[in-house]
Design brief:
Order of helices and strands: EEEEHEEEEEEEEEEEEEH
Structural class: mainly beta
Helix content: under 10%
CATH architecture of the largest domain: Sandwich
Organism: Hanusia phi
Strand content: 35-45%
Number of domains: 2
CATH topology of the largest domain: Jelly Rolls
Radius of gyration: 21 Å
GO molecular function: zinc ion binding
Shape: elongated
Pfam families: zf-MYND
Distance between the termini: 32 Å
Number of strands: 17
Protein name: MYND-type domain-containing protein
Largest sheet: 5 strands, antiparallel
Keywords: Metal-binding, Zinc, Zinc-finger
Length: about 240
């Protein structure tokens, strides 16, 4: 999305840290065309005099990487986990196959400029990502807080994945296959009866599924979770609705 947001790490005396933020995508199958991360500039804090010229502190990570897949530990709705249980399992986000995590695609590590503009990457080719979740990994910290110079932070003002969902197409992780000593997850694309508005479909992980889908009452070709989603989507659907 384009709305403002804010995220901050906890304080650390060490610059070597790995932080992460997990996003739930609006569909289990998406096309991603660009990535954006904008660090937070603390305009209200004293200037950083350790750089020349001095400037307000910008709490960017040194490097970032995006991972896409299915991360059940990050979703409090899976197995009715409480926020405390989700936090207790946060370390599992850094393991590709721990506790059900399945990685479908992973970008290379990218350096982040220590500027308010941050990093925006237009992908040379759009990428198909499956699983419904994205994890932004942030490697190492570069900025000490100027009010308490011993503490390193990473703060993000805005992060975005730009692209579009693939409604009508679902995905589900198939059984994990063992090749040698490595676990390799494989993904199966399925033609799913999915809601054209929210992307929910009948077969899939619990956090993406709904109990029943209804056809468009006019053309009978498109599926919706209910009449409310049909009304919300009608301004797009009316251009090609057969009726």
């Amino acid at each position: 999305g384009e709305g403002a947001c804010y995220w901050s790490s906890v304080a650390s005396r060490r610059s070597e840290n790995l932080d992460w933020i997990c996003f739930k995508l609006i569909s289990t199958a998406c096309i991603v065309t660009s990535l954006k991360v904008q660090p937070y500039e603390a305009w209200w804090q004293p200037e950083d005099t350790t750089v020349s010229p001095s400037r307000k502190p910008v709490y960017s990570p040194k490097q970032i990487r995006f991972r896409f897949g299915y991360f059940p530990n990050s979703d409090p709705h899976v197995n009715q986990r409480s926020p405390e249980e989700v936090a207790a399992n946060s370390c599992a986000m850094n393991a590709e196959h721990e506790d059900g995590n399945l990685i479908h695609f992973c970008t290379e590590k990218m350096s982040v400029p220590q500027t308010l503009e941050g990093l925006q990457v237009e992908l040379a080719r759009p990428i198909l990502v499956l699983g419904g979740f994205a994890s932004l990994q942030m490697f190492d910290r570069v900025q000490r807080q100027t009010m308490s110079p011993r503490d390193f932070y990473t703060c993000i003002q805005h992060a975005a994945l730009i692209g579009y969902p693939l409604y009508g197409i679902g995905c589900r992780p198939s059984s994990t296959r063992r090749w040698g000593h490595e676990d390799r997850s494989s993904w199966e694309m399925v033609r799913a009866k999915s809601c054209a508005y929210c992307g929910s479909f009948v077969e899939g992980p619990p956090s993406f599924s709904c109990n029943k889908l209804l056809r468009c009452s006019q053309c009978r070709q498109v599926w919706y979770c209910g009449s409310d989603h049909q009304k919300q989507h009608y301004k797009f659907h009316k251009m090609y609705c057969a009726k």
